Amino acid sequence: MDVVNLAAKLSTFADHWQPRTVAEFNGQDVMVAKTHGEFVWHKHADADDFFLVLKGNLVIEMRDRSVSLGPGELFVVPRGVEHRPVAREEVHLLLIEPTGTPNTGDAATAAVRRVI
Amino acid sequence: MDVVNLAAKLSTFADHWQPRTVAEFNGQDVMVAKTHGEFVWHKHADADDFFLVLKGNLVIEMRDRSVSLGPGELFVVPRGVEHRPVAREEVHLLLIEPTGTPNTGDAATAAVRRVI
């Protein structure tokens, strides 16, 4: 593989909630995404969900609490925990999940996996 | 878990080549580390090795080529590939490896796992 420049990868697309896979390791997909607005409530039964904010501020709502992440801050939503990411402004993210994990928690509604 | 602020975690220690675990997900340890100088040549037989540079410039030498990573750039050294990280200046890193992976490729010489 080549070196991945996250800002360069993010500059290649503008749509929201459509993660792009930029690397793979140990069965995990490393993805970049742009988000704005509210995503759907969902959970991943078998996958912890890694978020690292690169730009902007992301709130991750859970049923019993919320966390707020700025640039350089990360959070792991444990498997099985319902959550809803909310971006009041455009947010750039690094996401890591096991390869094949549907981003909505449901293959029927998930974003298509795209490798860039 | 709580939100992890990478800069705050990095501010709590000064030693080099001694990764600290700041989060775990899907059997992987998320670590921060400071490096300066040349590490040892090593490989991980069963683990791909994820590097994301947060500050400074890191060269990862492999036997057949080298790559150079600046801030916001990531690289995965595939399992089984010999490599030597070299930092000509102090470099701050985010590292991800399966929990328990010895950082030198050898449990006898590896840094002790520390969770902060």
CATH architecture of chain A: Sandwich
Give a count of the beta strands of chain A, DSSP E runs of length 2 or more: 9
| Oligomeric state of the chains in view | homodimer
In the CATH scheme, the class of chain A would be: Mainly Beta
Largest β-sheet summary of chain A? 8 strands, mixed
**Helical proportion of chain A, percent range:** under 10%
Number of domains of chain A: 1
Summarize the structure.
The first copy, chain A, is mostly beta strands and 116 residues long.
Features:
homodimer, 116 residues, mainly beta, Jelly Rolls, 8-stranded mixed beta sheet, 4% helix, 50% strand
Could you walk me through the main structural features you see in this protein, from its secondary elements to its overall organization?
Chain A is mainly beta and 116 residues long. The first copy, chain A, has one domain: Jelly Rolls (Sandwich). Helix content of chain A is 4%, strand content 50%. Chain A has one helix and nine strands. In chain A, strands 2, 3, 4, 5, 6, 7, 8 and 9 form an eight-stranded mixed sheet that branches. In chain A, strand 5 and strand 6 form a beta hairpin. The longest helix of chain A is centred in the first third of the chain and has 5 residues. Chain A is globular. The N and C termini of chain A lie close together (12 Å). The mean pLDDT of chain A is 95. Chains A and B meet through strand 1, strand 2, strand 4, strand 6 and strand 7 of A and strand 1, strand 2, strand 4, strand 6 and strand 7 of B.
